[in-house]
C-alpha cells in the first residue's frame, strides 16, 4: 500500500509543478514540448519491443484485445469520465483536461513496468513502485505543463488500477511464466508507439480500445503452449 500511495502522490506533485510551469509557457512552446514528449514516448515503445516475442503471438493478442476493447468501447468510457470531471472542475473554454486525463491514464496503464511494479507491491516489495514514482513525477510534470490539470486527476484511476493488480498479485504472480511476462511487456510497448504519435498530432488512434491486448497476450501464450503440447 505504501508504494501505491507514494506513486499517487508523485503524480499529483508532478502535475502541480507542471501547472505552475504552464502559466509561463506560450502555446507555441507548449506544442513543441508536446511533440518532444511524443517522440520520447515513441522511442520508449520501440526500445520496449523484443524479437523474442513472435509476430503471430502479437497479431492474435492485438486482434483479440481489439475486439474486446472495441465492443466495450473503453476509449469512449474513459473520455466520458474525463468530460464529466472537466464539466465539474474546469470552466475555461478550449480546455485540454480530457486529453491530459486520457493521455496520462493510458500511458501508465499500458506500461508493463506498471504491471510488474504493482504485482511486486502486492507481494510486499515496493522497490519498483518507488522507482516508478520518480519517473511519474518527471513525466506528469512535463505532461501537466502542456495538457493541464487533467493529468493530476488521472492519479485516482492509476491508483485504483495498480491497487487492483496489487490486490490480486498473490493469485496472478504464480500463474505468470517468463514467456507470459515478455508477451504483455511487448504488447504494452507496441501500444505505446501510437500513443506517442497521437501526442504529436500525427495520428488519432483510440489506444484505450487496444488495452485488453495486454491481458490477452499471456492468455495467447498459454493457449499456444497448450496446443503445442498436444
TrEMBL record:
It holds the Pfam family DUF554. The keyword Lipoprotein does not apply. The keyword Ligase does not apply. Keywords: Membrane, Transmembrane, Transmembrane helix. InterPro entries: DUF554. It comes from the Bacteria. The chain crosses the membrane at residues 6-25, 97-119, 139-168, 180-201, 207-227. This is DUF554 domain-containing protein. It comes from Emergencia timonensis.
